Amino acid sequence: MSFEFLRESIRAYREHDPAARSSLEVLLCYPGLHAVFGHKCAHALWRLGLRLPARFLAYLIRMWTGIEIHPAARIGRRLVIDHGMGVVIGETAELGDNIMLYHQVTLGGTSLEAGKRHPTLASGVIVGAGAKVLGPVQIGQNARIGANAVVLHDVPAGVSVVGIPARPVERHQPCPDFDAYGTPDAPDPVECEIAELRAELARMRERLEKLAGDRDGK
Question: What is the pTM of this model?
Fold first, then answer.
C-alpha cells in the first residue's frame, strides 16, 4: 500500500509541478507528500483507537512540514499539496481523489458541536492559495475555488467561485483539466456587479436630464 501510494503520489506531483525535475526530488523535498504520507500513518492509528499517539504523530508532522491534518480526516488518493505551508485540514473533512490544495488553505469548521462540521471535497477539486472553505459544505466534483476566496455554501460540480464571500463566475471557456491556483480566466463577479450599477446610474442620469429638459421646454 505504501509503495503504491508513493508511486502514484509522486507521479501526481510531477504532472502538476514543472519545477519537479525527478521522482527522487519529489520524494525528498516536497513537504506536501511527507504530510500526506504521515497522515496515512496517523489515520491508521486513529482507526485502531490509538487517539493520543495519532494526535502526537500529527503534531510532529505539523512541526516538520507546516501542514496540519487532523488524523481523523479522510483523504483520497493522489492529493497534491503544493508548497503547503499553513494548510489546515479539520477533523471531519473528507477529500476525494485527485485534489490539489495550495498553501494557506483552510478546510475548517464553524461549529463547536460534535459531528460533521468540516467540508467535503469531491474528486478533482482545486483550491487556490489562501482560500478558506468553512463548515460542512459540499464542494462538487471538478469545482474550482479561487485564491483567497471564502466559501460558506455548497459549490456545485464544475463551478468556479471567487471572492469574499465566494460567488460563481462565468467562464469564457469550458473548465480545463487544471487551473493554476484555482483561479479561472473569468471576470470578477463583484466588478461585474459594480459595472452594472454604474451603467444603471448612467441610464438614470440620462432619463433625469431628459425629463428636466422636457420640463424646461414647456
Answer: 0.78
**pLDDT of 103-157, one tens digit each?**
999 999 988 888 899 999 999 999 999 999 999 999 999 999 999 999 999 999 9
Catalytic residues: 103
Q: How far is C-alpha 76 from the geometric centre of its chain's CA atoms?
A: 15
> Which residues lie below 8 Å from residue 36, measured CB to CB, with a gap of 6+?
9, 69, 75, 79, 81
- Yes or no: say if 89 and 107 are a contact pair by the CB < 8 Å rule: yes
Residue 118 DSSP label: S
Peptide bond between residue 71 and the one before it cis (omega within 30 degrees of 0): no
3-class SS of residue 14: helix
137-175 residues labelled b (16+ CB within 10 A) or e (exposed): bebbebbbbbbbbbbeeebeeebbbbbeebbebebeeeb
Q: How confident is the model at residue 55 (pLDDT cuts 50, 70, 90)?
A: very high
Find how far residue 67's CA is from the centre of its chain.
14
Quote the CA–CA distance of 107 and 174 in Å, as a whole number. Answer: 27
C-alpha cell at 12: 501526481
Strands 138-139 and 120-121: parallel
**101 closest CA partner among 59, 135, 72, 66:** 66
Return the sign of the alpha-carbon dihedral for residues 33, 36, 42, 44.
Answer: negative
